[in-house]
């Protein structure tokens, strides 16, 4: 019996090792794609614009790539962000995704991330703990920032953000990173775990992802419910900690109830607008207005479900509609790069959106707000000192 156990353990080690070396690249290439091999080049006029570009959502930490190294896989790494002119990227921590995930109706009874964690040889504690997965991904980003020699800087406070902006103004091409948590199920039912994740560097949190939690209903969950009483306590604790609330994937009831009680701006980091792309994942006009009323922003996504398009012009049209609903001060970018998505370009092409906004009739000052200025305003208002 003992010999059989040893053999099984050795086979498991071999299987995990082979999976770690052979499978992650092909798996990610399957999930994270670019719509066309012929991505337009960014014109010199667009490239030379005085823009601070901020993107509110990328899931790059899911994939076992060194983000300091330029890759041909996925959408985001620091060299590609630099090429695209990005100044700030929000990196989301994903800890659980249901099998057969969809935008209509999911429960939390299954999980794809367990398989991914094993194949990518994450530490064994992450195979069984959502909180451990969150801490691990946060630690990876911290470690990459520490060995980047200043190319990547992790933003935890307003002072960190101010120093980053000063460096950029002086000509640095460093990229700022902010950690976000996609779905508070990673708290494992304990609100005190919010403090542990805050200490790990997380500065944005969403109460839900693809399924309902003990805090709130998801737009693709079973109930379409709003906040629970525990969820209300979560919002109060997050605001007290200066953690920005992200309502991406939240049900309409959750959005309505959170925005009614919020004392600080809230965001929807990555979404579309029902008026230009009608599906259950995207926001109604009422939800857009509710977020804007808090002083927050709507991050328009780059993938098909968000904008019903596979080019920058479609993204710009969705932004135009969001601006018509909420005002130009409340719209930003939320690519959902590396989120199992197909996008028109990777991070090198993000500036193509500013060109599309020009063609859509936006003025230069408006483009500056949408491409990053609005996101910076919200971060200045919500980050801890």
What are the main properties of this structure?
TIM Barrel; 385 residues; 3-stranded parallel beta sheet; 6-stranded parallel beta sheet; alpha/beta; globular
Walk me through what this model shows.
By secondary structure, this protein is an alpha/beta fold. It has one domain (2-35, 47-382): Metal-dependent hydrolases (TIM Barrel), CATH 3.20.20. Helix content is 42%, strand content 13%. The strands form three sheets. Strands 2, 3, 4, 5, 6 and 7 form a six-stranded parallel sheet that branches. It has a three-stranded parallel sheet with strand order 8-9-10. A two-stranded parallel sheet has the order 1-11. Helix 10 packs parallel to helix 11 (285-293), helix 13 (312-326) crosses helix 14 and helix 14 packs across helix 15 (364-382). The chain is globular. The N and C termini lie far apart (59 Å). The model is unreliable at 6-15 (pLDDT under 50).
Write the topology of this structure.
Elements: H1 2-22, H2 24-31, E1 33-34, H3 44-47, E2 53-58, H4 78-84, E3 86-94, H5 113-119, H6 130-146, E4 152-154, H7 158-169, E5 175-182, H8 193-199, E6 202-206, H9 229-240, E7 244-245, H10 252-261, E8 267-271, H11 285-293, E9 297-300, H12 304-307, H13 312-326, E10 331-333, E11 342-343, H14 352-359, H15 364-382
Parallel strand pairs: 1-11, 2-3, 3-5, 4-5, 5-6, 6-7, 8-9, 9-10
Helix pairs in contact: 10-11, 13-14, 14-15
